[in-house]
Design a protein that fits this description.
mainly alpha
């Protein structure tokens, strides 16, 4: 059964967009271009989706098919989307100094530890959650490389540079 012209419109584009995301995450379902037209290409993709998820393959988006598409879409979007960034919020004048303890310092130490593998001037700090001597020394070495005053203290500016450089470092290391 071929859909009537009333299928043309934004709701069809939304369906096609969800199917495209599902296809990108699944690989067994062909992709469709979200053009807003419920034509043979969309019917073929809907049929493939229905076969994949145990629904009789009619190519028509009935309520059961729609509900299943909606249920599969969000997890598929999570699989293909970017990972959630960790946002560290430091107060404008907040500074971590030697002896300070914080969950943020575990992250700092892990980042410095990772960067120490590629930057010989950064010695691997102990991961303790405390800004100890080895962490201050590694942080000062990073600050020097980044063109910042080598204080060995963690402030907002240092964190901003560290986060940026770590993203570049990690993506380079991962081959991106």
């Amino acid at each position: 059964m071929r859909p009537e012209e009333s299928f043309v419109g934004q709701s069809v584009r939304g369906l096609q967009t969800m199917l495209r995301v599902i296809a990108e995450a699944d690989g067994t379902i062909p992709t469709v271009i979200p053009d807003g037209i419920y034509g043979s290409a969309t019917m073929n993709v809907v049929s493939a989706f229905q076969r994949r998820y145990g629904i009789p393959p009619t190519g028509i988006t009935d309520q059961a098919t729609w509900d299943r598409i909606v249920g599969v879409y969000e997890p598929a979007l999570d699989r293909i989307g970017e990972a959630q960034a960790i946002e560290i919020i430091l107060e404008p004048d907040q500074v971590f100094r030697r002896g300070d303890r914080s969950p943020y310092l575990y992250l700092l130490q892990a980042i410095l530890l990772s960067m120490s593998n590629d930057y010989p001037s950064i010695d691997a700090p102990e991961v303790s959650g405390t800004l100890d001597g080895s962490t201050a020394q590694a942080l000062a070495a990073f600050q020097l490389l980044a063109g910042l005053p080598p204080t060995g203290e963690l402030d907002r500016i240092t964190w901003k540079y560290l986060a940026h450089h770590f993203s570049l470092h990690a993506n380079h290391f991962a081959g991106y």
